[in-house]
Amino acid sequence: MPASQTSIKIRRATVADAAAILEIYNHEVQFETSTFDLVPRTLEAQEAWISARSGAFSVIVAVDASDLVVGFGALSEYRDRAAYKTSVENSVYVKRSFARSGIGRLILTNLLQQAADSGFHAVMARIEASSLASRGLHESCGFALVGIEREIGRKFGRWLDVALMQCILHEQPDL
């Protein structure tokens, strides 16, 4: 049963959170189109992913009152060329049983603040285009649709489009 948003706290992830993050992420890999990964991660790979991230790129988790991980998010390099260094891409995942409870918004607003505090200019989101919930979440946090990549990925035997959304941080009054 979803907890109220007021009982949810955001904190930096530790390697001890890897199994809970893995459970959330691998569900998305195996059954959903929110990630274009096709092969579930191993626990070792998830631990290494968390360990390799620091500073602005640290993984954050949303936890309930008993410290159960119910969602996670991270910023990543947008592109590897030098001119893109002021832009990042966000990822937000929420345990399906906690969907539409405000946890995604809590994670995303924390990531936007983390990006602003770290001196980034723009945050990008690449969202499977039919995911109206994720697109709506991003729009409610100041993102605008800037394009659609048509039939850019293939999963579960079908072609998928990606909605590219962008948030210019200095245009956000709360950051």
Task: Describe the structure in brief.
Helices cover 27% and strands 31% of the residues.
Structure, described:
- The chain is α+β, with helices and mostly antiparallel strands and 175 residues long.
- It has a single domain (5-171), classed as Aminopeptidase, CATH 3.40.630.
- The protein contains four helices and seven strands.
- The chain has helices spanning 18-31, 43-51, 103-117, 132-140; strands at 9-12, 60-63, 69-77, 87-94, 122-128, 144-155, 158-168.
- A seven-stranded mixed sheet has the order 1-2-3-4-5-7-6, sandwiched between helices.
- Strand 2 (60-63) and strand 3 (69-77) form a beta hairpin.
- Helix 1 (18-31) crosses helix 2.
Provide tags for this entry.
alpha+beta, 4 helices, Aminopeptidase, 175 residues
